[in-house]
Every structure is written in structure tokens, then in C-alpha cells.
Amino acid sequence: MSLLDTAKNLIQGQSRYRLEVQGCTDLLDVEHFTGREAASDTYHYQITFTCSAQDLSAQQLLRRNASLTFCAPINNVMGLATQPTVAKRVHGVVTDFRRLSGSADEARYQLVIEPFFALLRHQIRSHRFFINQSIPDVVEQILREHNFKGWEFEFHLEKAYPKREQINQINESDRQFIERLLSEVGIFYRFGLQDDTQTEVLHFTDSQRGYVYDKTLPLNSPSGLSDNHVDSVWGLSLRHQVVESTVFAKDYNHRLAEDTLISAVADMTRGDGEKTNYGDVYHYKGRHLTRGDKIRPETETANFWARLDHERFLARQTLLRGESSAADLTPLLVLNIQDNPLSSTLPAVFKSPILITRLRFTASRDKALTVRFDAVPYTESLCWRPALKPRPVIAGTLMARVTSAKDHDIYAHQNEHGFYWVKFDADRDDKTKGYESMPVRLAKPYAGDTYGMHFPLIQGTEVAIAFHEGDPDRPYIAHALHDSRHPDHVTDKNNTRNVIRTPANNKLRMEDKRGQEHIKLSTEYGGKTQLNLGHLVNAEREQRGDGFELRTDSWGAIRAGKGLLISTQEQEKASEQQLNIDEIKRQLSDALSMAESLSTILETAEVEPLDNQTQETFLHGNITQLQEPVILAGAPGGIAVSTPKHIQHSSNGNQIYTAVGNTEISSLKRMVLFAKKKMVLFAHELGMKLVSAAGKIEIQAQTGEVDIIAQKGLNITSTNDEIIISAKKKITLQSGSSYITIEGSQIEHGTSGDFNVKSSNLQYMDAATLNMPYSQFTACESMASEAAQNGTGTVPLR
After folding, report:
1. Is pLDDT of 10 > 60?
2. What DSSP character marks residue 620?
3. Using CA atoms, how far apart are residues 603 and 590, in angstroms rounded to an integer?
4. FRET pair for 671, CA 20 to 30 Å: which of 65, 500, 652, 768?
5. Are 220 and 111 in contact (CB under 8 A)?
């Protein structure tokens, strides 16, 4: 052993505090130090030391592993020094280093030892997003990212913590983020020392089983400079204060909108604090999804939050303080204080175990170690909880894009509730494609029970994500935006147009340019189907009409279940009722009146009158108030129907045509008028013409008679051929009282006056006959016509 090593061992053997830094071979002699430790906080030891090296560099010390060892006093037995006993060892990294002064012999330095976990305060993230993880999962992930080994942290958790849909880190360091998450659910931590490596270990716990037990110290105020090397406590004080009596929590979960999600009133003193505590605390938006059991609530439920919050309040109801010389005191240590049972001066609260929550260490070369501690009463029924760390509040929105699990998806990627997944622009972590966030609701201007307004968002759409009450874990899509990748469809080139257009070019366009106002509703299916209203334009904005146009390149249908009115009757600015048909009713009433007057003429002429009753019933029963599903058409300027092919009219009832003017029917080919029962042609004033320019005119009464009656003359003329009048049985020509009858075998002339024959020649010849052809009617036609004439519904078979 060298002389230097011998000197080091001699000096270190005389000092109760030994400072060592990894890689530093110089002797670091502790002059004095202060330290603080607390539950759910990192320890911090500031150590002033001297060293013969005049220029220790930052590279030698910063971020190096370091340890401060507390040694028990050395007992010399028979003048022989025994090996010092380690009372406490603090391990960590050097986070701060400075040179204070120097002399010819040595220099004074100061450094700070903190656990490696404290360095996480330098890992700052403005945004980070964790998906479908529990709080312990998130904490473990971050620790492993900082190269914590599995044995360097331990979870001793009594409760199971659910996976949250999304947990966001907002403008926080990793340490702040971890401590905030832990405080929210009541998990606290302490540091221990690994036996083999003598390095720090993080212990996370949520119940009393994470405490350190079996420590007892006597109550003994030291006097003079000697404490007989026996650790003790002294200087005990306490403080009681009024805290809140009860807590209850309420929240809203849109997935269970009918559930109020309100907790039971939580009083963790079970009524014992009724006379000392005051105030009921009501928390809304505790971020719970269910109510939870009243007695044993599941974590992150309404009753869990209420009970946890009351435990936080009760943790500061009774605050204890004291001092000690014991170096091995540690946060979350359950300490028993031993007093003289015969003359105890301890208050009752100190006679029971206490839980240490905070420690402050001070010592120097010339002053013994003093440990000041804060504590609370220990109880098995009430667990200590760390203070709630403030949750970041997000003002404004974050930029994100709608995502999909499918590349170039042309349809919206949604869950069964219509929510979307988004990729935050600030998110640097790799996540499953299409599921980079929790399912996010879309805010809409109108919503209801399966009704509202919703335009599906397509992959890549830029959206602004807002947060309910600024809560970073409650995002929703506030609105969608255009960008250079998805430019706006309304710009300075068409800034007079208000346009709703879908990705498939379904469109509602409203033009506001003065004098050219119009609305267009269109779809691309089947070529083009559109409804155009107002000032009609083409693709180049050139006018092509005005009014309205309903058109399609595919099939079209107009269907109205109660009735359909088609009218060109002007109704300026919709000033009258929708179904105002006064003009049409007047027109039809006039037609009915005319038909009734014509019926009178028919009756006078002993012709069967028109069926006016049916027409009147239809007018008043179906049309007047559109009582029945009829199509009613009216046009003051006239109605024209045209087709290059076929027009067909069909009805199971009557077809009535009435015209004040002419009724003209023209056909370039054949025209057929067919009546199964009866046909009447009647002209009242100007007569009737039946003309065939080519071809013959044939009039038949297949089972009946033909009557040709004229009040005046009856002319039968053949201008270029003969006239044949034939009868199979008999012909009678009669005028006044004279007559001629022609039968099959005789001709008879009869008159009461003269019978004159004027002829240049009169011949009498042999008998002769002439057989004329007669039209033959089928038996079916004859019998059917006869049955119809007799009004019978059957035809006899002969």
C-alpha cells in the first residue's frame, strides 16, 4: 500500500462521512453537507468538501455516479480502531458542481447528489401521446427509455389500474409527467438501496404495504456533546388543522350518457372527523368512466376519486415534526417512539406509530448529524397520499390529421360510434397505422338521436383538436381545415359561391352574386343528376336559362303520395297557399257547366246525355282540396305533350275531354274510336262531316239497324260511279202516301194519285234476278252485340 493510500484510509477512518465519485481518484474530504428527502420526491444532498486537487473539472464529476456514506462512530477498544459501520449510504449522480475557494494546501468544492431519476427533469417534451396504456405502463415505458433496468424500479401495487384510451404529456419534463400521473391515482414512491450494487432503487406503491416498518427510537434530548452513541428523537411538535369533511365527484361519459356517474359522499374518517372537519368538496370532471362500488371501488371510478381526494385532505390534518440523530431514517418509515412509561410527556399521537414523510439532514466536521423530520399519524385504515400535481391546461387547439388503417382510403375510418382516429403532428412516436390516438369525437353544429349534421372526414384531412376544459386527455375534433395538400374549393376565383362538396362531387352550391343568384344540387351518379334553381349557368358560368331545372342522365321519377299539383299559374313570392288551385278549379267548374248545358241539348235531341255526375263527383270529391292522390296540372298559357314515339292514356274510370274551342285529333295513319257499348257523335249547330279523301267509307250495324234521319233534304250522290241500295229481304221507298216495294219475287208501286212514266222507250223483257254480296258477321260478334244490347252479362251457347 502506498503512502497516499495509507493517508486516505487514515483520514477516512477518522471522518464519519465519506464522499466517493466514480472515476475520481482524489480524496474528497467532507466539510459539511445538507440533505433533504421526501416521500414522492427525489432526494437532494448538497455537500461541501475539500480536496488537494486545485482544479477538479466538470468532466470528472458531472453525471458521475457518486455516494455519500454515513459511518457510525468508531469505538476504540484497548486502543485498537475497529472497522467503521455504515449507518446510511446515499447513492446517485452528481447534478451540480462548483469550486468555492482555494488555498495553497487545498481547494473547497461543492456538489449535489441526486438520484438518476432526478435527471428526467431535463427531458422536456412539449407533446407526447400514449395510447391504450395504464399509468404504471406509461411510467415503466418512460423509465426503460431512460435505460432503467428492471431491478432498478419496482411496483408494489395493491390495485389494478385500467388502460386509458389516451394519456398526453404536455409541456412537461418526463419527471413532472410521471409524478403528475402518479399523484392523480394516489401512487407514491420512495428510494431504497440495492443490496448487491449499493445503488438506488425506485419503489412505487399505493398502499401501506409499501411503507418501511420496524424502527423504534427512544425519546431522549441530547445534552452536552455526547449522546452515548445511541440514536434518539427529541423536539417533537404537532399541528392540527381543519380540513374538508367530505368529497363527492361527478363526471359525464358520452358512452353512457344516461348515467349520472356521481359518487357516494366519501368520508374516510367514517364520521370521526365530524366535529373537527368542515366543508363538502364537489369535484366535476374527475375523468372517471363509471361510478364504481361504494365500499371497494375499482380504480379510476367516481367513488375511487372521491375517497382518494379525501385521503389527500386528511394527509395534512395532523402534521408532526421532530428531530433525531438517526442517520437511517427514510421517507415512508413507520417510526415508533419509546418513552418512559412512568412519566411520559408525549402527546397521545406520538405514542402511536408515526409515518415519516420528509427529512432534512445537516452535519459537518465539527457538528453531529441532525435529522429533522415531518410526519403524520400512521393508521392502517387511512393511507398517506401525495399532493395532487397540477394538470396542464391546453389553450387553443393542436394540429392533427385524420388517419386510416388502409393506404389511400377514400372513405372515412371510424368506429361503431362514428369517432375518428387522428395522428397528431407533434407525435414523434411510431404507432399502429390508423390507430395513433384514442377514438376522437367530431364536434358538429347540430346533433341528436341518430340525426344531425355529419360530413365524414377522409384520411389526410387536417383537423384542429380541441380539449374539453383544456384537459389534455380529453381531445375532440373541433373543426377541419384546408391546406396546401387539400386546397379550399372556395377562393378568390369563386368567392361569391357558398359550396358544400363531398369527395365524390356531390354538391350543393349557392351563388350569391347579385343578379345571378342560384342554387345547384347535383350528384355524379348515372352521368349527372341535378336540381338547378334561379339563374342557370353552364360550367363556364354562361347563362343557359333561369327559373328551375330538374334533370338527370339516368331514370327519373316524380312521386307524391297525397297528390301532385303541376301549375304554371303565377304565385308571386310564394304569397299564397302551396295548393292554391283556384284557377284550375274555375276552369274545371266551367267545363262541368258547359258539359251540363250540352247534356240538356242532347236530351232535347233525344240523345243519351253526358255522364256529368261522375265528372262532378270527381271534381268535388278528389280535386277541390286534393283529397285524393291525384295529379292536377294547369297552365294559363296552355299544355303541350309531344313525343316522336308513343303516347298512351288509360283509366279504369271515365276519360273526359272538354274544350270551349275546337277539339282536333289528327293522325297520319289509322285512327280508331272504339266503344264496347255505345258511341254517340253529336254536333249541335254547324253539322257534321264524314269525309274520306281516298278509300271508301263503310258504316255497319252488325246486329242492329242503321237510321239516317234528316229534317231537310237527304242527298245520296255518286259523282263518278253508281249507287247501289240492296236488301236481302225488302226495300221500301216511300214519299207521302206513294211507295215502291221491292222484294225477292215482286215489285210493287202504290200511289193515291197519278203514276207518270216519262221515257223515250219502255221495254218489257223476260224475268231476271240479281244476287248482291252481303257482309257476313260471325256468330260470336252477333251474340256478343245482342247480349250487350239486351243488357245481359252472359252469351248463350247454341
Report:
1. no
2. I
3. 20
4. 652
5. no
632/568 Cα distance (integer angstroms)? 12
Percent of the chain with pLDDT over 70: 93
CATH of domain 213-239+316-387: 2.30.110.50
d(CA 234, CA 423): 59
Three-state secondary-structure class, residue 504: coil
Q: Where are the alpha helices (DSSP H) in 3-133?
A: 3-14, 58-61
CA separation for the pair 597, 616 (Å, rounded): 14
Spatial distance between the Cα atoms of 701 and 789, rounded to a whole number of angstroms: 12
Q: Which amino acid is at 149?
A: K
Q: What is the CATH number of domain 3-114?
A: 2.30.110.50
Cβ count within 10 A of residue 390: 9
Of the candidates 106, 98, 92, the one whose C-alpha atom is nearest the C-alpha of residue 26 is 106
As a CATH number, domain 118-209 is 3.55.50.10
Q: What's the DSSP call for residue 753? A: S
DSSP class of residue 485 equals S
Helix (H, G, I), strand (E, B) or coil at 579: coil
**Rg of the chain, C-alpha, whole Å:** 56
Query: What residue type is assigned to position 497 of the chain?
Result: R
- With 0-12 CB in 10 A as exposed, 13-18 as middle and 19+ as buried, what is 687? exposed
Per-residue pLDDT reduced to its tens digit, 681-729: 888 888 888 888 888 888 888 888 888 888 888 898 888 889 988 888 8
> Which of the 8 DSSP states describes residue 740?
E
CATH 1.20.1280.290 describes domain 398-473: no
| Nearest to 370, CA basis, from 186, 233, 506, 533 | 233
Q: What type of residue is 290?
A: T
* Residue 596 contacts residue 529 (beta carbons within 8 Å): no
**pLDDT per residue as tens digits for the range 247-302:** 999 998 888 888 888 998 989 988 888 889 999 999 987 678 888 899 899 999 99
Helix H or strand E encompassing 464: strand 462-467
The H-or-E segment that residue 790 falls in is: helix 779-790
What separation in angstroms does the CA of 367 have from each of 30, 33, 107, 232, 361? 12, 11, 21, 16, 12
Report domain extents, the chain.
Answer: 3-114, 118-209, 213-239+316-387, 242-315, 398-473, 497-557, 582-632
Distance CA 185, CA 175 (A): 16
Ramachandran region, residue 186 (left: φ > 0; alpha: ψ -120 to 50; beta: rest): left
Lookup: cell for 334: 413507520
Can you name the residues that pair with 609 across neighbouring β-strands? none
Q: Where are the beta strands (DSSP E) in 103-152?
A: 107-114, 124-133
Phi, psi of 534 (to 5 degrees): 90, -130
| 346-361 pLDDT tens trace | 899 999 999 999 999 9
* Contacts for 753 with CB less than 8 Å, ≥ 6 apart: 738
- SS3 for 332-400 is CEEEEEECCCCCCCCCHHHHCCEEEEEEEEEEECCCCCEEEEEEEECCCCCCCCCCCCCCCCCCCCEEE
Residue with cell 386509458: 164
Give residues with Cβ within 8 angstroms of 791, minimum separation 6: none
Domains 3-114 and 213-239+316-387 fall in the same CATH topology: yes
Residue 715 to residue 319: CA distance in whole angstroms: 137
Q: Provide the 10 A C-beta neighbour count for residue 444.
A: 13
Give me the half-sphere count of Cα atoms (radius 13 Å) on the Cβ side of residue 107: 13
> Would you call 520 helix, strand, or coil by DSSP?
strand
Determine the Cα–Cα distance for residues 303 and 292; give it in Å rounded to an integer: 6
Q: What is the DSSP annotation of 154-177?
A: EEE-SS--PPEEEEEEEEEEHHHH
> What are the two backbone dihedrals, phi and then psi, of residue 376, each rounded to the nearest 5 degrees?
-135, 160
